[in-house]
Amino acid sequence: MKPPSNPTSTYAVTLYFDPDSTTLIRSAISHLAEICGNDYMIQNEVPPHLTLGMFHASDANLEKLENLFRDFSKKAGRTFPVDFSGADSFMDKVIFLSLKKDSPTFTFLKDLNSSLHEMFIPHFEAGDNRNYLPQNWVPHIALAVKLSHSQFEKGFSLFEKSILPQSAKVISLGLARCNPYKEILRISLSTDSLSAEQRHKNMAAIHSSDTKPEKKIRSALFKFGLRFRKNDRRYPGTPDLVFPHYHAVVFINGCFWHGHESCSRFRIPKSNVGFWENKIERNKKRDSENIKKYQDMSWRVCVVWECAISGKKSRQKIKNVTEKICLWLEECESVFLEIRGYD
Fold first, then answer.
1. What percent of the chain has pLDDT over 70?
2. Quick one: which of 77, 25, 32, 84 has its CA closest to 49?
3. Contact criterion met (CB below 8 Å) for 270 and 127
4. How far is 64 from 1, CA to CA, in rounded Å?
5. d(CA 309, CA 317)
6. What is the DSSP string of 17-63?
7. Alpha carbon distance 125, 131 (integer Å)
8. In this predicted structure, what is the pLDDT of residue 4?
9. Which residue ranges of the chain lie beneath pLDDT 50?
10. Of 38, 54, 236, 313, whose Cβ has the fewest other Cβ atoms within 10 Å?
11. What is the DSSP string of 114-131?
């Protein structure tokens, strides 16, 4: 007798708009449904939204998905405006509201989409629709979907002349199950005075510093009495920790993004394999080039892999890794130290 299968669903991470803009977009959806005779969006009670990404998750992993979503909401952080350029279409099957590509917000949204996939892909497989992957994604708000050829021709020719909202404010982030659409979580974004350009700069630095593994090691080393510089951009590769007194640097690498061979945390996603292989290879090549630069400078390099300090008994692992780094710094002989979880 076969064990029961673990059902898998597709989930979307979405952005929601302010009430006035939502009402206008909902009105446009209803108008379009009347024109083309396709009311799929209305019948399925799909609210006006902008989808950032889609992922597969089993029911057993829903709690993990929700926790990751909560962490991601901190990156989106604050409300921000979006400017629309008008109606557009995709493959004569979808009519959507497009965003102005020359606006700072458009760039910020692209950053947000990339950051979302960097967080989720190591844990969840991307959805079947590859248009949401970073290299393909274009921000848009769906107004009509699953259109037949005749419905599209009838709807788009008339609808593109309709009055559409020119802007909106993103006020919350949502996690929803797809087909049928069911909202699971919604988190409100706080208000702020940052411009889209300032926010774009903040997004660019999101995954470069202050990761959880880095914080754990940094705190432990500080307790050992060591003092250091963190994420100093004056050094090749912006090392996580710099010890000028010892002429040494420490990189704390995520196993997925830095391609940790023979590690269970490093698995190329099944979808869009070529994209991920190229991205990981570029990261590995850059890591090797940075290590060579330090060797040429007569500096020493330590690489701590995420698997060495994560998982079960993480406190003891962090203590062991910290002791290894301290001994390595003091002995001043070996120029390279690599600390892996399976050592």
1. 88
2. 25
3. no
4. 29
5. 5
6. E-HHHHHHHHHHHHHHHHHHT--HHHHTTPPS-EEEEEEEEEGGGHH
7. 14
8. 45
9. 1-4, 193-194, 199-200, 202-209
10. 313
11. HHHHHHHTTTSPBPS-GG
Q: Which secondary-structure segment (H or E) carries 322? A: helix 314-331
Give the Cα separation of 207 and 33 in Å (integer): 41
Dist. CA 101–CA 134, nearest whole Å: 15
Integer CA distances (angstroms), 289 to 236, 297, 304, in order: 9, 13, 17
| Contact of 304 with 250, CB cutoff 8 Å | yes
Which pLDDT value is given to residue 149?
Answer: 86
pLDDT of residue 249: 96
pTM of the model: 0.58
* 215: number of Cβ within 10 Å: 14
Amino acid at 292: K
Q: For helices 104-120 and 196-204, give the axis angle rounded to 10 degrees.
A: 30
